[in-house]
Specification:
This protein is an alpha+beta fold. Helices cover 36% and strands 17% of the residues. It has two domains: 33 residues; 225 residues, Hotdog Thioesterase (Thiol Ester Dehydrase, Chain A), CATH 3.10.129. It has ten helices and six strands, in the order αααβααβββαββαααα. Helix 3 runs parallel beside helix 4 and helix 5 packs across helix 7.
Length: 317
């Protein structure tokens, strides 16, 4: 009977070895492969489709509830300190934020676009959701291949901007008592009781890795669409002539109180704060230290390696 070695050795060539290593590398870093960011966005876009929306109708109580997406800190995201690089958090926030918006505003997006298909054929302006600013504070490091969750929710909104906060949390460190849009994901009563007991002992802030705040705007062509209108079109807020009993005065007052509270926090990304930062730009009349290249491109890589190997004395700044 032929052994495993007799079967493997004839096929063990350098090309086979390199191909195997390449496949392993791709499998371990699939999140950071070309066009994977776009595919992750498409995965979030699908919740605009009617067939992909939650069966539970949206209610005002859903406005400030978070949606949870999970991810892993893969090798190509790791920096010199052997933890997830700061820059990689922002691409994750893109994905988490899109999941929230496509879940809560699916109805409004469909109305503004005239359908849910990639090309609707409707004679309406191009509808989009633009990022106006983002800030991220880092609290704890994420180790290679450590799993984590992104809890994204609406913080507040004003006449133009909607502010979304995303918390990076250790996986399974904090579990909701139930899932309002997806009841089938909610734990059983026994499990819910155990979560309540654990919740008394575990402080969620001890498991937060980072917190990001995004300032976004809805656009129909060049026209700004107010967040309040989008919330109304999605059935999350009452219209001016609404008589729906779902929108009782107490609930609306609670929503407004929560919105006002969030506005105080959102001042971090306010227009006034941005203008103050823009005023710090030195301009053309200042004296600068000099110019450097960032080392990108073939010339930059070769030059950097030659400098490190002391094969070149002159520097390409």
């Amino acid at each position: 009977m032929p052994s495993v070695a007799n079967f493997i050795y004839p096929h063990l060539t350098w090309s086979t070895l390199w191909f195997t290593l390449l496949c392993i590398f791709i499998a371990l870093n699939i999140k950071n492969m070309p066009f994977m960011w776009h595919l992750r966005l498409v995965n979030a876009f699908r919740f605009i489709l009617r067939t992909q929306r939650p069966a539970v109708p949206l209610k005002p109580t859903h406005i400030f509830q978070p949606i949870i997406t999970s991810s892993t800190a893969q090798l190509m995201e790791i920096d010199f300190n052997m933890h997830k690089s700061n820059s990689s958090y922002f691409s994750d926030v893109d994905i988490a934020r899109t999941h929230l918006v496509c879940t809560l505003f699916a109805k409004a997006i469909e109305q503004m676009r005239g359908g849910t298909a990639a090309y609707t054929g409707a004679k309406k302006p191009v509808f989009g959701f633009a990022l106006g600013g983002v800030s991220c504070n880092f609290k704890r490091e994420l180790r290679p291949y450590e799993e984590y969750e992104m809890w994204s929710k609406i913080l507040t909104w004003d006449e133009k901007w909607i502010y979304i906060v995303t918390h990076f949390v250790r996986k399974d460190a904090a579990k909701p008592k139930n899932y309002s849009l997806y009841p089938e994901q909610s734990p059983s009563q026994t499990r819910r009781n155990s979560i309540e007991i654990e919740g008394d002992e575990v402080k969620p802030d001890k498991h937060i890795f980072a917190t990001a705040l995004s300032k976004c705007v809805f656009k129909a062509g060049r026209r700004t669409v107010s967040p309040e209108l989008m919330l109304q079109m999605s059935g999350l807020l009452p219209t001016d002539n609404s008589e729906d009993k779902e929108f009782d005065k107490v609930t609306i007052q609670e929503i407004e109180a929560q919105r006002q509270k969030g506005l105080a926090t959102a001042q971090l990304l306010s227009g006034q704060a941005q203008q103050s930062l823009e005023a710090e730009f030195a301009g053309p009349d200042c004296e600068a230290l000099g110019r450097h290249t960032d080392g990108a491109g073939i010339a930059g890589v070769v030059n950097t390696l030659m400098q490190l190997a002391r094969l070149k004395k002159s520097q390409l700044l």
